[in-house]
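Cross-posted from the bioinformatics board.
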Amino acid sequence: MKYFAQRVIHATALLLAISFFSFALVELAPGDYFDSMRLNPEISQQAVAGMRSQYGLDQPLLIRYERWLAALLHGQLGVSLASRGPVGPVLRLRARNTLLLSGTATLFAWLLALPIGIWSATKRNGWADRFWGLATSALLTVPDLVVFLGLLLVAVRTGWFPTGGMRTEATGGLGYWSDAKDFARHLILPALAVALVSVPILIRHIRAAMIEALESPFLRAARGHGIANSRLLFRYALPAASNPLISLLGFSVATMLSASALAEIVLGWPGLGPLLVESILSKDVYLVVAIVMLSSVFLVAGNLLADLLLFASDPRIRME
Amino acid sequence: MTHRHKLWAAFVLLACLHALVFFAGFFAPYDFATQNRDLTFAPPTRIHFVDAQGRFHARPFVYGLRNDPASAGYSVDQTRVYPIRFFSRGSTYRFGRVFPSGLHPFGVDDPGRLFLMGSDAFGRDQFSRFLYGGRISLMAGWIAAALSLLIGMIVGTLAGFYGGWIDHILMRGGELFLALPWLYLLFAVRAALPLHIAEWQVFLLLVAVMGLVGWARPARLIRGVVLSAKERNFVLAARGFGASDMHVICRHVLPQTWGVVLTQMTLLIPQYVLAEVTLSFLGLGASEPIPSWGTLLAALQQYYVLSSFWWMFLPAILLLPVFLLYYAAADALQERLASVPL
Amino acid sequence: MRHRSNQYPELDCAAPLVRIERLSKQYVQRGALTRSKVTVQALDQATLTIRRGTTLALVGESGSGKSTLARCLALLEKPSAGAIWFAGDNLTEMNSKNLLPFHRRIQLIFQDPTSALNPRLSAAEIVMEPLAIQGEGTKLWRRRRALEMMEAVGLPARWEHKRPLEFSGGQRQRIAIARALALEPELLILDEALSSLDLANQEMLLQLLADLQAAHTLTYLHISHDLRLVAQCADEVAVMNQRTIVEQQSALELFARPRHRYTQELLEAMPSLESICLERSA
């Protein structure tokens, strides 16, 4: 428990530092949201100044940070300048979408990578291993952006997948099942995209972890006892390899988040990614900070989760 | 192929690519901003050796295009024939920013057009824009990678050599940068800078942003090397002669890091090129009319472009060999460094 | 080659060059994740003296603290307690700035010559380094001096550009010796310097060291666990056990009439040393 408490404290300190960091970063930008209004002759300078002070944008950095932090502790994330409403609800919706996407993509990715990785490890240096090795290298060379654009091209040309959005407008209300099917159809392409770019690295790591487990002395001893191969694989090797694999799961959250942000933008999934770009382009300060904070919360949470799972599964760590 | 062959092949090919891009002015038949309003979204120009009458010409030629209302595109006008001239005169550029010249390796006379990769929404030659765009993207990648490595080296060496609270603070700071998904971090830092920026400043700003974002991982790796290097006996021997810290660092510790620095360089450059492409793609990087590979790809975000004009996808495909070369070079370099003793 | 003793005429050659008094050294290791501290005692009140121009051999088993003593004497470690007197100066009470000139006068040769030489530098650069660090002369002068030192240890000057890996083990140790001698030290500490060499090389290097000692009035502290080697070159022998010095005498005395129980046990393993010693002094 002490181990875990240490971790949590560390994570909190980190998040605090990140919050100040991102706050300060956005502050550095010259000009603010209301600059575009200054160009409009119909709005007087006083009105702009009034709006500015209403949102507290005329205060110095530290005061604004304090206020923001205080509000945060009350569960308020600030106000979105573009939508004039609180940041919370906007964020919640988009965050839910991003989590849905990342979660599904993680599922797809591991469903693909785990069997391939294990198979490659068992048939090491055989034709299957070499084939997958080549395939992963090839896929790794292709930049994420190009993969997403390629999938978009496929979607447009073949019409198999809908592009953009989460549901088809016209068909809403036809019943729960058809809504769900529609939603799934919209989800598949982005989830597949994110999974595709994460799979190669996953395969490599899984293969490496399995090979290490398969070559360890205790496994060779078990094999010497005449235990069947399949039993060896699932009851001996896989649990031994689970330690690095669980860490991998935690850390893959980070790369998944970056990849999904880009996929959302290119493939039109309404998640945190497009929202971030929009808010940067419109200098919606508090929204930007909130999104950046949220992404790092996810990342840190992912790592914490990995630590917790590791703690629970690996007795060696418990002994320290 | 041995390590050496692979390494040399990769480097030579990379050098060719960079030469093409560096001398874009010469190699590109057109300027990156010249518009042809009557030839928007023209497909790649077909090169012919045999004309309509079935005669073979040693010099390849192209046909002129005219608007075809029936197919909402273009049809070939076989009455207008433009032979391809080599070492032709075309759009002017400045060689080394000083000497104006109009020489190009190939081109066709006006009003014929040789669009090797087709044209975009403004009738600009995609091939020329690809070459010019490479300048921004590749150079941004190089300089940003160098910046990140420089910061990483300084931080890693200080942290590894002196240890204690310096190490603690620097590594915690690095953790901060590593705790954000890189794309979000990139956006956040980009948000700190003014949105609409003029030409050269775009470049410098982008480079600074990317360089400042990615120092944490190289710093960690270099710190590891420094930690083990400073315990080596020859370092101890130098201290036995009364060597100062600076002497030990410069003469003995830093040279041990060259291997890591080199491999990191070859890995970071493609990453940063990709970062620039992503930023420009999203409109957060280079802005019109400066071409970058990202802005070339940005057009693909529109549905009708994707569905009707296949050649607009070519820049995306051409990116593949570029990255392939860099990764191959990185692999070959790693193998080579691993095989050299010590 | 200058005769050593003229350089410090004010010193009495009979007075000890080095006097180590009750030297102690502790290492404190913090646990990685836990809060515990582990204290390792590496030296415990060691006392010995070395007279100028002689060779003192320090023997004892591994872990008895020989290397720690060598490092403290070579100013690479700071002792926790005790004093080191060198030619009348108390080294343990000086700050690093005042200690700088003493780095020239005391030099250490490591056991493994390969790790002690930077593999990326050439032989000449390695030998030149101490001169550069101490700021002696111009680059040209330093190179010439380095080549002189190489010749003095028996390595041809034309090998100056070779890297350490191109030399054999014995030759690398010669480079290390050349480097150590570049600054004209008074005391040379050899920390198991000959242990990694084969017998033939050991003989050659012992001869070289003896010649250099005669030519430059060098003082040697020879740390070794090889008693046969010790018998061949030592004037005095100090025995180390359990991190402290248990006995120090002239070599002949020690081998003939060992006083401490540990020394006796040590010598029981090698019965013929007395005869080797007798042969040498005859």
